[in-house]
Specification:
The protein has 279 residues and is of the alpha+beta class. The protein has helices at 30-35, 59-68, 118-133, 160-167, 169-174, 192-202, 206-214, 227-238, 261-278, and strands at residues 5-6, 77-79, 85-90, 93-98, 104-105, 110-111, 116-117, 140-142, 149-155, 177-183, 243-244, 246-249, 254-256. The strands form four sheets. Strands 8-10-9-12-13 form a five-stranded mixed beta sheet, sandwiched between helices. Strands 2-3-4-5 form a four-stranded antiparallel beta sheet. Helix 6 runs antiparallel to helix 7 (206-214).
Length: 279
């Protein structure tokens, strides 16, 4: 069971998260299969096909696309599986834009032959890259460095399910899962939840302060600025956090909100299997 407390839209990047409704699994009908042309029998001594040249994205296409998307860079634009559309990856968000930069599609692209969600694999890859690049010096970590599994959790001190998840942190660690916390106060900057996050981050013992805060203890900590909380919050927004707790595996898979220790282990193992199968 996966539950998370909804977050309000808060940054310019989150408009990319408005994905189209998930497609139902589609199985080709028997008539469609019958109409599928058979592959020709290879001819003896036939010459091997010439290698396909890599597709080059014209500089003017990159420029037009980037000009329409605040925060996008030329390197964010790539070839997409759909002719005439280009993929734009910003953080963990994936969208598709026309070459003239006029039209944007936000949603999942499926290969109907394999029924594979092509967007999901690209999205997870982008998220995994962003999470791997994040320094653990900008996190509050519970669990040993040599744990079998690691997750990154965006949390809000005042979120009920976040508190429930943290009340079981010892059991989560015993199950072999290392938790890397980052703050995502759902109410945004200059709010009570944001201030609490700053106080925890500025505490001499952040782990103890976070545990106390999750229990509802009140304490006044010194201020050390909001730079750390702000950067964590922005990363969560870029990754498409929709509520808290937001749990990501090392593969970049967004496995959901609150999970019991057993459910969390199962979700991580399923994520790992899917990642291996996709290679």
């Amino acid at each position: 069971m996966r539950r998370r407390t909804p977050a309000r839209p808060i940054t310019a990047a989150t408009w990319l998260v408005a994905a189209a409704a998930a497609l139902l699994a589609i199985t080709p009908s028997s008539s469609a299969l019958a109409a599928t042309p058979q592959k020709p029998t290879p001819v003896a001594n036939a010459k091997p096909a010439a290698p396909t040249a890599p597709v080059v994205i014209p500089a003017d296409v990159r420029a037009r696309v980037v000009a329409k998307l605040p925060g996008a860079q030329a390197s964010d634009v790539a070839v997409s599986p759909i002719p005439g559309l280009y993929e734009v990856a910003m953080g963990g968000l994936i969208a598709y834009v026309s070459a003239d930069g006029k039209y944007l599609l936000s949603g999942n692209v499926y290969d109907l032959d394999t029924q594979e969600n092509l967007t999901a694999s690209r999205r997870n890859s982008a998220r995994a890259k962003a999470l791997a690049a994040a320094s653990e010096s900008n996190m509050i970590v519970f669990g040993p460095a040599n744990a079998k599994m690691t997750v990154t959790v965006f949390t809000d001190i005042d979120c009920g399910y976040c508190r429930k998840f943290h009340s079981q942190i010892a059991d989560v660690n015993k199950a072999g899962v290392r938790v890397r916390y980052m703050f995502f106060p759902r109410t945004g900057p200059a709010t009570e939840s944001w201030t609490k996050a700053e106080q925890v981050w500025c505490a001499a013992d952040r782990r103890d302060a976070l545990t106390r805060a999750k229990k509802g203890d009140t304490f006044k900590g010194k201020s050390c600025g909001d730079a750390a909380v702000k950067s964590q919050y922005e990363l969560g927004s870029d990754l498409g956090v929709e509520g808290t707790p937001a749990i990501f595996t090392q593969n970049g898979d967004y496995v959901g909100g609150y999970l019991t220790p057993a459910e969390l282990v199962q979700a991580i193992q399923e994520s790992q299997k899917t990642a291996v199968a996709a290679r």
